[in-house]
Amino acid sequence: MKLIANSVTRNDQYLISKYGKLQEAALFARAEISAIPETTGAEEEREMIEFALAPVERLARSLRLASSSTKIGATMKKRASAWLTGGGWDCLLEPARMAA
Predict the structure, then answer these.
(1) By the 8 A CB rule, do 72 and 20 touch?
(2) Radius of gyration of the chain (CA)
(3) What's the pLDDT at 97?
(4) What is the pLDDT of residue 6?
(5) Quick one: average pLDDT of 54-76?
(6) 3-state class (DSSP) for residue 99
(7) Contact 74, 16 (CB under 8 A)
(8) How far is CA 41 from the centre of its chain?
(9) Is the pLDDT of residue 94 over 90?
(10) Which candidate, 41, 37, 47, 83, places its Cα nearest to that of 62?
(11) 8-63 tens-digit pLDDT
């Protein structure tokens, strides 16, 4: 029984850690995108945006594949999936509510 509890804890710790990294990557990408000069051409701007979003997409996809055993873990996976399917920054950057 203890082995199962440890496995649940490890999975959730992994999800929480990965989600934190996902939020950091999203904040950085948003700042990078905001810093693109207005004089940038359309093609170059698109490439810069894709480059800024790449780490966010990679982390969101890997988070979506991880297993969750708690409500908060399931919420984090749902937010990553929502962002990948066209949700806005709020999907990732809104604070997660954790039960005390």
Answers:
(1) no
(2) 16
(3) 57
(4) 53
(5) 90
(6) coil
(7) no
(8) 28
(9) no
(10) 83
(11) 567 778 888 899 999 999 999 999 999 999 999 999 999 999 999 999 999 999 99
In Å, how far are 7, 8, 73 from 2, measured between CA atoms? Answer: 9, 10, 20
Q: How far is CA 33 from CA 7, 30, 46, 52, 66, in A?
A: 38, 5, 10, 7, 28
CA separation, residue 11 to residues 4, 14, 17, 37, 69 (Å): 11, 5, 10, 41, 7
Residue 42 identity (one-letter amino acid): A
Task: Give the amino acid at 89.
Answer: W
**Chain centroid offset of residue 2 CA:** 30
Counted residue by residue, the chain has a size of 100
| Cβ 91 vs Cβ 79: under 8 Å | yes
Amino acid at position 96, single letter: A
Instruction: Please give the angle made by the CA atoms of 84, 25 and 46, to the nearest 5 degrees.
Output: 65
Contact 18, 72 (CB under 8 A): no
Residue listed under structure tokens 């170059």: 44
Tokens of 56: 């966010």
